[in-house]
Specification:
The complex is a heterodimer.
Chain A (H helix, E strand, L loop, with lengths): L5 E7 L5 H11 L5 H14 L14 H6 L6 E6 L4 E8 L5 H9 L3 E7 L6 H12 L4 E7 L8 H15 L6 E6 L23 H7 L13 E2 L2 E3 L11 E5 L4 E3 L3 E5 L4 E8 L7 E3 L3 E6 L10 E3 L6 E12 L6 E2 L3 E6 L2 E14 L6 E2 L4 E2 L4 E14 L10 E5 L6 E7 L7
Parallel strand pairs in A: 1-3, 1-4, 4-5, 5-6
Antiparallel strand pairs in A: 2-3, 7-15, 8-9, 9-14, 10-13, 11-12, 11-15, 12-14, 16-22, 16-24, 17-21, 18-19, 18-23, 19-20, 19-22, 23-24
Chain B lengths: L9 H19 L3 E4 L4 H14 L8 E5 L5 H14 L3 E5 H7 L14 H12 L3 E3 L16 E4 L27 E4 L7 H11 L10 E8 L2 E4 L13 E6 L12 E2 L5 H10 L4 H5 L9 H7 L4
Parallel strand pairs in B: 1-2, 1-4, 2-3, 4-6
Antiparallel strand pairs in B: 5-6, 7-8, 7-9, 9-10
The chains are: A alpha+beta, B alpha/beta.
Chain lengths: 422, 302
């Protein structure tokens, strides 16, 4: 019986051996198809490569091949008897912070690749910073190309210590270091005989056994109402259900709930699915809730517990990653904002500072954010939002900004700590 | 449900994600429509759409782009589903469009490319601003980078460089008049996920997917079942082989694969071990070039 889905994000450039590592995971888990492999072998042969370049598997579009760049996040899938994996594969160059943020936003694990010869680079610091900014709960640091440093334990320990030192400045919940050779397969799928001093698991077993359900928030009930189900039929009369995806917490039949923004309370009469009612619902289940009282609730509202409600605010303080190349972010501008299932408009009150993603230095003189820049901002919204800090809740702490003149998604935002504790 | 106290099995997680996508589109877009081909992916899509809105009906119509080259059993199958779910069906006919001169038959007989203008015309006539498609990212290289909400311009065209970042599950379906989005609720499903789900949910599928003794001819290394669309040519010998279809496209270009899988359980077991992609195995039209799919998508294909 396959277990839970695991989503992981990889970041790195070709030099780090990222594509080779992905190719090996796909190949060794038999997720690579022979026609895909044949087409890659053909291209490699035509180019006169010495060996089949597994990196070719990961550059998909002709536009990319022609320009020798990777435009975008590519999603790949593989499964072992233990679980199914979704890889968000993102290119690592500095100009692709946008893609890394996208890939990391839904990831349970971030895989960071380091070249054992070069150790920690500016790029690997940036990857670690972005992964923790996006709240990825597990960091796996693969120290690759161990074959090129004679599988030296002291080199591995040296890099590990340096990385741990740097990571004290980040909010890392769980971090693992694995010495690997993606090219030769050491510690990728099977334990390597070349690293007798390493007593941890190979990468794949580590990913298979990682417990991710405990990363979810089962405490704070947050149910953003997505859609109101009202059948217009003679078979089902007077049904009014609130459909949505549980963001966090556990909802049970009979629970008292508070509806926001109305502030009215009711009791859960049923938790419905097309396969029949269920006793309880938790993230990421998609269900339809009916209440015992007829209160006015619509899309964009939120159900929570009376004694545990999110903050209801109009002044947002948070960090954003700017993702648009056609315009920059400045104080005084207005944007559409989407938070859970609610759209509102916001005014930019202030850009507090811009963060240098390589040094973590805060530039308080900054007056704008350009593509791939990250900053701390103050926004004022036209309607109240029901939020938690992003650290507490990756669903109710997240928002996007949309430029109403182009409809482009221009920023990803993470809400900071609430005044008064949260 | 799995052994974990509050864990969801991978298929339930994928299903929940797809339901979320359907509801998001129904809530935010003016006029969505679901593209139905009678293939396993569109069947799975329709099955999940029903779940998303139950006990209400699916709040949007279904469109079939009819190339005129359908396997006959597929049409009957389509009509049964539409009736069972009480849906409105829009048929966009490629043959009708050929008679009107909108499109012309291509020399190789494939109507895969020419169905695009027909689809776009019907979408425009009905004012659909969101079209659900059964595309999956594991199918093909150009699809691996496709968004769940794929933005299309006034010409229905896909520009890989002008797609919106998709962060968390905060989808942005905002469009100006004339523009639209294609939505792929099964983006994160694999072929094996689809079959495992069909088995677990006991979804009825067209019998073309099941192995049976069929009369076939071998053409370009692939096996084609003899039908009004596949007439044996000089030098081709008709043989009886045990075959099934891994994809269901146009009857004149979809090849069958040798298989003993005559039940869904056996199909799941077969797919779990098969080492060739479904398109590589069965589609004459995807082999044209490395970038065939990418080019078709730019023209407005799914």
């Amino acid at each position: 019986m396959p277990g839970e889905l695991l989503r992981f994000a990889t970041a790195g450039s070709v030099d780090d051996g990222k594509s080779t590592l992905i190719g090996r995971l796909l190949y060794d888990s038999k997720s690579l198809f022979i026609d895909q492999l044949a087409s890659v072998e053909q291209v490699s042969r035509d180019r006169g490569d010495d060996y089949t370049d597994l990196a070719l598997l990961t550059d998909g579009l002709r536009a990319e091949r022609e320009q020798g760049i990777t435009i975008d996040v590519a999603y790949r899938y593989f499964a072992t008897p233990r679980r199914k994996f979704i890889i968000a594969d993102t290119p690592g160059h500095i100009q692709y912070t946008r893609n890394m943020v996208t890939g990391a936003s839904t990831a349970d694990v971030a895989l960071i690749l380091l070249d054992a010869r070069r150790g920690i680079t500016e790029q690997s610091r940036r990857h670690a910073f972005l992964a923790t900014l996006l709240g990825v709960p597990h960091l796996v640091v693969c120290i690759n190309k161990m074959d090129l440093v004679d599988f030296s334990e002291s080199r591995f320990e040296e890099i590990r210590e340096e990385f741990e030192e740097f990571a004290t400045r980040l909010r890392v919940r769980d971090m693992t270091f694995i010495p690997i050779s993606a090219l030769l397969g050491d510690n990728v799928v099977t334990r390597s005989e070349n690293t007798p001093w390493y007593d941890g698991s190979p990468l794949l077993s580590h990913l298979e056994r990682l417990h991710v359900a405990s990363d979810r928030n089962f405490i704070d009930v947050r149910f953003p109402v997505q859609y109101v189900v009202r059948p217009q039929s003679f078979e089902v009369i007077d049904y009014r259900g609130y459909a949505g995806t549980v963001a966090s917490g556990v909802l049970k039949r009979g629970d008292r709930v508070l509806a926001l923004p109305s502030g009215l309370e009711s009791t859960i009469a049923s938790i419905d699915t097309a396969d029949g009612p269920v006793e309880e619902a938790f993230a990421p289940m998609a269900v339809t809730i009916t209440l015992e009282d007829d209160i006015d609730i619509s899309r964009g509202d939120m159900l929570c517990r009376p004694a545990n409600a999110p903050s209801v605010i109009q002044d947002l303080d948070g960090q954003i990653c700017w993702m648009d190349e056609t315009a920059s972010f400045t104080a005084g501008r207005k944007y559409a904002l989407k938070h859970t299932t609610r759209w509102t408009r916001v005014l930019v009150k202030a850009l507090e500072y811009r963060i240098d993603v390589n040094t973590l230095h805060r530039d308080e003189e900054a007056t704008e954010l350009k593509l791939n820049e990250i900053g701390r901002v103050q926004l004022r919204s036209t309607q109240p939002l029901f939020v938690d800090s992003y650290v507490e809740n990756r669903h109710t702490g997240a928002f996007i900004l949309v430029d109403e003149s182009t409809n482009r998604t221009v920023a990803a935002g993470m809400i900071g700590r609430m005044p008064g504790g949260h | 449900m799995t052994m974990l106290p509050h864990g969801l099995s991978q298929l339930r997680s994928l299903e929940a994600e797809s339901i979320h996508i359907f509801r998001e589109v129904a809530a935010e877009m003016q006029k969505p429509c679901l593209l139905f081909s009678g293939g396993k992916d569109s069947i799975t899509m329709l099955h999940i759409a029903r779940k998303a809105f139950a006990p209400a009906r699916i709040p949007f119509p279904v469109m079939h782009v009819d190339t005129g080259l359908n396997f006959p059993s597929i049409l009957a199958y389509r009509d049964r589903w539409i009736e069972r779910l009480g849906l409105k069906l829009v048929v966009a006919s490629v043959e009708d469009a050929m008679r009107r001169g909108l499109v012309r038959e291509e020399p190789n007989g494939s109507r895969n490319r020419i169905q695009t203008p027909v689809l776009l015309e019907a979408a425009e006539q009905h004012g659909f601003d969101a079209l659900f498609g059964g595309g999956r990212r594991d199918e093909e290289k150009a699809r691996a980078k496709e968004r769940v909400f794929s933005f299309r311009d006034e010409f229905g065209q896909w520009d890989p460089k002008n797609q919106r970042p998709e962060i968390w599950s905060l989808y942005n379906g905002r469009v100006f008049p004339g523009q639209s989005i294609r939505v792929f609720p099964l983006s994160n499903w694999t072929e094996l996920d689809v079959w495992t789900y069909i088995r677990d949910e006991q979804i009825e599928i067209p019998d073309l997917y099941l192995a049976a003794e069929r009369e076939v001819v071998e053409r370009g290394g692939m096996l084609y079942a003899v039908s009004p669309f596949i007439v044996p040519r000089d030098g081709e010998t008709v043989q009886v082989r045990r075959v099934r279809y891994r994809t269901v496209g146009d009857a004149n270009l979809t090849a069958a694969v040798e298989s003993d899988a005559d039940t869904i359980d056996k199909i799941v077991a077969e797919i779990a071990t098969v080492r060739i992609t479904e398109r590589g195995a069965t589609r004459g039209d995807d082999k044209v070039s490395e970038a065939a799919m990418e080019d078709r998508k730019k023209e407005g294909y799914f």
